[in-house]
Write a structure and sequence with these properties.
228 residues
C-alpha cells in the first residue's frame, strides 16, 4: 500500500508540476517588467520551511474551518471533505507538493529556455510556423535535456515524500496517503525493527534505480543530443 501510494503521488505530482512550471517559464521568458520579482515570488516556497508550509495548507484544506470550503460556502457550494476522504486527501497532498516545487523547476526551465538561440524562432517565423509548431519543433526538442533532468530529479524527490503527508494527514485516512518513506520511518523509529526498515530501504533504492535506468534507456529516443 505504501509503495502504491508513493507511485500514485509520483504519477500525479510529476506531470502537473512539469506542465505548470514549463508554462510559467514560457510566459516569463518574454520581456516582462519586474521579471526578478516574479522569479522571487515563484521560488519563495522552496526557501520556506516545509513544516510551516504544511501547517498553512492544513488550515486551507481543513474540512470545517478551511479557507477553501469557507469560500465555497459563500456561494452555497459544499466543498470536498479534504483530509478526511481518501481521494480528497491524496489530491490535497498533490496540490501542496506541486505548489511547493513549482518555483524550483520553473527556474530550471527558464534557464533552459534562455539557452535556446532566438535565431531558430526567427527562421521558423519567416517560414510561416505558428506558435504551436515552434513549440513542438523547436522548444520541446531543444529543451528535452532539461526536461529529462527534471523528470529524473523529480522522480527521486517524490519517491522520498515524507514530511508533507506525515504532518498533513499522518498517512490517513485508512493509509491512503501512507508513503514508503513513512513506512521506513515507522519501522525504524516507532517499532525499532531496524532490519526490516533496512530491507524496505533497499527495496525503495532498487525501485528508484530501476526507474532511472528505464528513463535513461527511453531518453535515447526523445532527448536531443545535439548530434546531426
Amino acid at each position: 500500500q505504501a509503495l502504491f501510494n508513493t507511485l500514485l503521488f509520483a504519477c500525479g505530482i510529476i506531470p502537473i508540476t512539469i506542465a505548470l512550471s514549463l508554462g510559467l517559464a514560457m510566459l516569463v521568458n518574454r520581456k516582462i517588467r519586474g521579471m526578478n520579482a516574479y522569479k522571487a515570488a515563484f521560488f519563495l516556497p522552496m526557501a520556506t520551511s516545509s513544516v510551516a508550509i504544511t501547517l498553512v495548507w492544513f488550515w486551507i484544506f481543513a474540512p470545517n474551518i478551511g479557507i477553501i470550503n469557507y469560500v465555497l460556502s459563500l456561494f452555497h457550494i459544499d466543498g470536498p471533505v479534504w483530509l478526511v476522504d481518501k481521494v480528497g486527501a491524496r489530491w490535497a497532498i498533490i496540490i501542496m507538493a506541486v505548489w511547493q516545487n513549482l518555483g524550483y523547476y520553473f527556474l530550471i526551465f527558464h534557464a533552459g529556455l534562455k539557452a535556446i538561440p532566438k535565431d531558430y524562432y526567427e527562421a521558423a517565423t519567416i517560414d510561416g510556423a505558428n506558435g504551436i509548431q515552434r513549440f513542438f519543433k523547436i522548444t520541446l526538442p531543444l529543451l528535452s535535456p532539461t526536461l529529462f533532468f527534471v523528470v529524473i530529479t523529480m522522480t527521486i524527490n517524490v519517491c522520498n515524500l515524507f514530511q508533507e503527508p506525515s504532518i498533513l494527514t499522518e498517512g490517513g485516512p485508512e493509509y491512503s496517503t501512507y508513503t514508503i518513506v513513512m513506512y521506513i520511518y515507522d519501522l525504524a523509529f516507532r517499532y525499532f525493527r531496524m532490519a526490516e526498515a533496512a530491507v524496505v530501504s533497499l527495496v525503495l533504492f532498487a525501485v528508484l534505480v530501476a526507474i532511472t535506468i528505464i528513463q535513461f534507456k527511453l531518453s535515447r529516443k526523445w532527448v536531443y543530443s545535439g548530434e546531426a
